[in-house]
Amino acid sequence: MDSWNPPESGPFVGREGAVRELGALVSGRSLVTLVGMGGIGKSRLAARVAGECGPEAFAAVHWVPLWSLSGPSLVTSLVADACGLSDHSAGDPVDGLAEWIGGRRVLLVLDSCEHVLAACAALVRVLLARCPGLVVLATSREPLGLPGETRFRVGPLDPDTEAMELFAARAEAVGVRWTRPEEYVAAADVCRWLEGVPLALELAAGHLRKRPVREMARLLRGRLALAEAPDSRVQPARHRALRTTIGWSHELCEPQERLLWARLSVFRSGATIEDVTRVCRGGPLTEDVLAGALDGLVRKSVVTLSGGRVHLYDTVREYGALWLAELGETRATTTRHARRFHELARTAEDSWWGPGQAEAATRLSACYGDLCAALEHLLATDPRGAAELAGAVGFFWACSGHLHEASHYLEECLQLVSGPPAVMARVCWALGVVRCLRGEYDTAARLAGRADEEAVRAGDATLLADAAYLRGLVMLLRGEPLNALAVADRALTGPVAGAAAAARCRLVRVFALTASGALRRARAAAEALRDDSVAAGEHWTRSYTEYQLAVIALFEERASDAAAHSRAMLRDKRLIGDAFGLGLGLDLLAVALAALERGEEAAVAYGAGQVFWEMVGHPQRGTPELKPLRQDAERAARLQIGDGAYEEAYELARLADPFTTLETMLAG
Questions:
Q1: Of 96, 126, 230, 643, which has the highest C-beta tally within 10 A?
Q2: For residue range 251-286, what is the model confidence (pLDDT) as tens digits?
Q3: How large a percentage of the chain has pLDDT more than 70?
């Protein structure tokens, strides 16, 4: 079963009957939606149900945190990412996702659909029609409204049993234990006053360190009585209970904690402590005061701190956003947020040629939702800033498979921004790389031409070199190695470019020399570039030099060396999370294994590689010179072990987790 990451927020309490009923529903229905108010426990219940589905029920379980999106435009991309699809094709992303799921038995958990309901419904309608083994388990404050949808209403916990169990567990977590009968009576009163709403109980428990449970019960009784209004029949009591508890929790916070709560509402992916400090500091929130306020919010259960990242419940975030608007700070805080993630993207770009490359790629992947939110804000308020950010993050997203997202934002920037030349050159270059990786070579060539024109206007040698890299890449993939070699040579003998751009041009030169048959020169150039990459602590360029050294070794009939180079490539690609490169490397390793007469292992490598190629949906598996090597190796492997054994090993690898198979191949 594929790995997935449901929310972690303490032990699961109660709802055993609901878990059993939902388990039966997801085994027999195609669309089940957990419907209920915010804070009622839909996500936790969905996580419990999905977590109990074993591999005999589903081949894969995928968790999609839709709450991280600020709008509907990237719903399909987020679902694809959660499913492990890094679609490099030029087609409709919905088609690519449907083909990737295919007929497999898959459970797709769409968490928090309400703010992107129409986009979710449209996507689910298509996927269910085309993927017969797909089951969708959604959580939302309102149903998706699709034919055949089974709606499961999630209500509060039983106030006398389940709610009391949850409240006592959360109290113990903050160091409070009740020993006297009157305390248990008061705790039971709190559970009844709060109508068994889990989030309300969590927030109330967060105040027990400073407010004894008997005092809490008295205060809640008074506040909830005041909350009763002439129109209270319109709104269920549990809605008033949660609203009152959040408001009460807000009032019990110190002023600095309330201000931090409001400012934290701008984050989408969870935030590191450094992110929180950079975005939320200011005014009364000095760095020391902010640290204390954050500690207070964690103690009061307003925010959770896990793995060094700060998270807010959706309902708590919404309340904070309302207060941020009330304070008149929404624009200023979202601008600081966008500035922070723009800075992170620039730092990652500057770290590309160096030991921070893999860490930067991981960091940008972890804050994906916040990068999207920053881009949305800048597109509305500062299009040039959006173009600078999109240009900085575009190549990272292309390398890690976020091609549709990169294309979406880069195209928006091209439509909205007309200068300056340096910014436009970077946007055109990044979009050209995306188009090239999607197989749209004519469009990529046009974008390379425009990037070159803008770079000339800017007088920037690095931008000129990157435009040359893009032109050379297109030529290589079209099967024009001599033209690519000429472009790379001109760039490398021209004005001195930055190290990363120069390395990319050197890489084009290596590929072109290999493809044109100049193997000795290609090997020398590849080894020199690899040594420079190793010295710099860089992985992306190094991985492709290992790829080329493997290809050269195969042409020179040095199969053992080719296998070693292929494994070195795969180790680097694994660090960066490049599915395209992993498919390429496994194909190359299979060729080497077949040359070593290890036909069964070659079949396994091909099968695992096929999974990665299906992930990216790319029509061309590498540069043209690899195709005949791959075909000859497959024929050789079949002859070595027989067609039946080959097909069996290949299919078993295709059905297995590709990353597990990858680890086995690397150890081999």
A1: 96
A2: 778 899 999 999 999 998 889 999 999 999 999 999
A3: 94
For the chain, list the domains and their CATH numbers.
16-153 (3.40.50.300), 183-252 (no CATH), 255-328 (1.10.10.10), 539-667 (1.25.40)
The closest of 203, 204, 174 to 187, measured between CA atoms, is: 204
Q: What's the rounded Cα separation, in Å, for the pair 238 and 436?
A: 54
| Residues facing 110 on adjacent strands | 64, 138
Cis, peptide link before residue 420, omega less than 30° from 0: yes
Instruction: Write down the pLDDT at residue 9.
Output: 55
Q: Identify the bridge partners of residue 109 per DSSP, sorted by sequence position.
A: 63, 137
Residue 127 token pair: 């996927």
| The 3-state secondary structure of 391-456, one letter per residue | HHHHHHHHHCCCHHHHHHHHHHHHHHCCCCHHHHHHHHHHHHHHHHHCCCHHHHHHHHHHHHHHHH
- Structure pTM? 0.83
Question: What is the C-alpha to C-alpha distance for residues 598 and 592, in angstroms, rounded to an integer?
Answer: 9
Q: Is 220 helix (H, G, I), strand (E, B) or coil?
A: helix
| Residue/partner pairs of 525-529 with CB below 8 Å, 24 or more apart | 526/552, 529/503
Instruction: Check residue 620 and give its pLDDT.
Output: 52
Phi, psi of 311 (to 5 degrees): -130, 150
- CB distance 50 to 4 below 8 Å: yes
What are the pLDDT digits (tens) for 448-463? Answer: 999 999 999 999 999 9
Tell me what pLDDT residue 304 has. 85
Backbone angles phi, psi at 480, to 5 degrees: -120, 65
Neighbours of 654 (CB within 10 A): 17
Tokens of 172: 């113990």
Q: What is the pLDDT of residues 124-155, one digit of tens each?
A: 999 999 999 999 999 998 999 999 999 999 98
pLDDT digits (tens, 9 = 90+) for 168-188: 888 888 888 888 888 889 999
Residue 228 has pLDDT above 50, yes or no: no
**pLDDT averaged over every residue in the chain:** 88
Residue holding tokens 């999609």?
Answer: 64
Measured between its terminal Cα atoms, the distance across the chain in Å is 23
The predicted structure's pLDDT at residue 1: 34
Count Cβ neighbours within 10 Å for each residue of 59-76 and write b for 16 or more, e otherwise. bbbbbbbbbbbbebbbbb
What is the pLDDT at residue 424?
Answer: 96
Spatial separation of the C-alpha atoms in residues 279 and 22, rounded to whole Å: 41
Which tokens in the block code for residue 595? 């040359």
- Cβ atoms 386, 65 nearer than 8 A: no
* Structure confidence at residue 174 (pLDDT): 81
Whether the Cβ atoms of residue 104 and residue 135 lie closer than 8 Å to each other? no
Question: What ranges make up the beta strands (E) of 584-653?
Answer: none
pLDDT confidence of residue 243:
67
* Most distant pair of Cα atoms in the chain: their distance: 88
- Report the C-alpha gap between 480 and 392 in whole angstroms: 29
SS (H, E, C) 26-66: HHHCCEEEEECCCCCCHHHHHHHHHHCCCCCCCCEEEEEEH
